[in-house]
Design brief:
The complex is a heterodimer of chains A (234) and B (79).
Chain A (H helix, E strand, L loop, with lengths): L1 E6 L6 H11 L3 E6 L10 E4 L19 H11 L3 E5 L1 H8 L6 E3 L7 E9 L15 E8 L3 E3 L2 H9 L3 E6 L18 E5 L5 E4 L16 H17 L1
Parallel strand pairs in A: 1-2, 1-3, 3-4, 4-11
Antiparallel strand pairs in A: 5-8, 6-7, 6-9, 9-10, 10-11
Chain B lengths: L1 E8 L6 H12 L12 E6 L5 H16 L5 E7 L1
Antiparallel strand pairs in B: 1-2, 1-3
The chains are: A alpha/beta (234), B alpha+beta (79).
Chain lengths: 234, 79
């Protein structure tokens, strides 16, 4: 598969994503600069983590107007797979490709630690290798990961199966204690109504090799690959 | 002309900064505080003298980029 990983001034997880996709999973992955206007031959886009534009104004607010994001929007509108990780999730929300917004963590502090996630809807390109309820242990590293959306939007998202990952304890219970940032409904990651654009605050690319004390993140990336392979075959 | 834009978190949105500052104010002895909300203040120097056009343009900018309508309200003043 051909993955495109975006690069904004201030991105800092771009190389990690390329490393995992290329060297761990064995796919093609290339970096695309924010000034580029075309995605070229791409099966999926990764919007990586970091601090694009120094998080000035709001996280993701400036990056979302970059040239490459216009191409990403067109790609998504045609059904292309787009995954936003951490700052990438914030950018996709700002761009309106995902509902809601990410605000300052409830406890103010920057949280950098492994968390447990419970997988929701398994019927999406991002979760198809994880049966409902699958627990994943993946690290977070963010100061503004508190997910917010109005009550009506949350209700629609629940009904449509758009809540893909929730913070939970090691037994899978979505408790207030296991919620690191105050996200509504313990939301760690979601997808759009069409299920081809997803975003999450945890970093699957940082948990894709045993040497990094876990490889649960691979399940997410391998789900995308499986979906793309099935789609190419049919 | 100068545009003054105030961006504040919506009522329904958690404002942990405001809560922390409220606690700090109370801690150092300021009483009678019901709530603290923290937002942003932006000043933009503008060319020209057409206040109405400026208000329209800056309101668009506020909606499009200076604020995020999902979580924030804004007000614009031209002087």
């Amino acid at each position: 598969m051909n993955f495109s990983v975006l690069q904004f001034p201030g991105s800092n997880c771009d190389q990690d994503c390329v490393h995992v996709l290329k060297n761990v999973l064995g796919h093609n992955a290339r970096l695309l600069w924010h000034k580029d206007t075309s995605l070229g031959d791409t099966d999926a886009v990764i919007v990586p983590g970091g601090f694009s534009y120094g998080d000035y104004l709001r996280t993701g607010a400036i990056a979302r107007y970059s040239n490459i994001m216009a191409a990403v929007k067109q790609f998504a509108d045609r059904g292309g797979l787009v995954l936003g990780i951490c700052n990438g999730f914030q950018i996709l929300c700002e761009a309106g490709l995902l509902p809601g917004a990410l605000i300052r963590n409830k406890g103010i502090s920057f949280r950098c630690e492994f968390v447990w996630l419970r997988t929701g809807n398994p019927d999406t390109p991002f979760t198809c290798k994880a049966p409902e309820g699958t627990l994943l242990r993946i690290p977070i590293a963010h100061g503004e990961g508190c997910y917010f959306a109005d009550a009506e939007t949350l209700k629609q998202m629940e009904e449509n199966g758009q809540i893909l990952w929730r913070y939970c304890d090691r037994h899978g219970n979505t408790t207030p204690e296991s919620n690191p940032n105050g996200s509504l409904l313990n939301i760690a990651g979601i997808c759009n109504a069409q299920k081809n654009v997803a975003g999450l605050m945890p970093h699957p690319e940082r948990a894709s090799e045993k040497i990094l004390s876990g490889h649960d993140g691979r399940i997410l990336l391998e789900s995308m690959v499986q979906f793309l392979e099935n789609r190419k075959r049919s | 002309m100068k545009a003054k834009i105030t961006v504040t978190p919506k009522k329904a949105v958690l404002d942990p900064q405001g809560k922390t500052v409220q606690t700090a104010l109370e801690h150092i002895g300021f009483t009678g505080i019901k709530d603290v909300r923290i937002g942003k203040y932006i000043e933009i120097e503008l060319e020209g003298t057409d206040r109405e056009a400026a208000l329209k343009s800056i309101s668009q900018a506020s909606h499009k980029i200076l604020s995020n309508p999902v979580i924030e309200d804004y007000s614009v003043e031209i002087e």
